[in-house]
Amino acid sequence: MELTFHEIKNIAHIAHRYDLNHILIGYLDKWLEPHFAHLLDYDYEEWLYVAWQFGLEEQYLTLANHLAVHCEINDRNELLVPSTQGQVFFPSAFPPHTIFLIHICRATALDDIFFMVRAWIEEALSSITCRLPCGIQEQILCSARNSHGLLGYLLRHGLFPMLSDSARETRSVRRIFEIMMSPELKDTLRIGGTNCEHDAACSLAKAVMEGVESLAGKLSWAVDGEMLKAIRRNGASRGLPLSEAKIPARLVGLTKTLGMKDEVKDKVDSDVKIRVKEEPMSE
Fold it and tell me: Which of 7, 184, 224, 234 could form a disulfide with 3 if both were Cys (CB 3.0 to 4.6 A apart)?
């Protein structure tokens, strides 16, 4: 018997309310498996509750971080469901603190991106970025083109001067990644003409794009220690082995989502620090 997603959600809520995981041991795997391929599909956001209740740790981590990367916010700082016209999440449909943790993960990712780009702006404005052994006047001109081009690009895409306040950024993390890794950035900073050798040696575009790309492998997880313990306890209650492993280093599925290579260039250390506010969780 194949159950619909709606039916599985109802079973998960009932199992939590009446502590029924142990009774469902012989049925859950065959009920859940047909839905695994739809994990990142639109309208499957509430699979987070299913994954939490039935101990599907990897699926929870994958979906939570997928949402942290794809969600926008509205002008009231509310997290919006991806691919909708401003639909907000209903926290009651998710495990305790789920939406809060996704929100924090998103904000932290934006902070990391903006911090890195601000550092490049400061370097461009305060130092000689030209890497060629040419005269000082030519080096100054090259550096000015770099800084002017970068600031102009950020301004056109609404990222300057907002780099000082990531909380005001309503677009998704993915969209910011796309802007910062677009070929348009490289074209904007292209000097061309008789100074084309500066393009390869001096352009900030390559450094900015490589830096932003490396951040994709360093994003915080949209989970905290208490959430992870709850998922594992719930899994154990239906017969899964109680794992004590640390959060995996690789962001499963995230690099594909960002249109990057499957293997993350800069792997996170396996003892990754979860940069979220620790709050007590009810079970």
Answer: 7
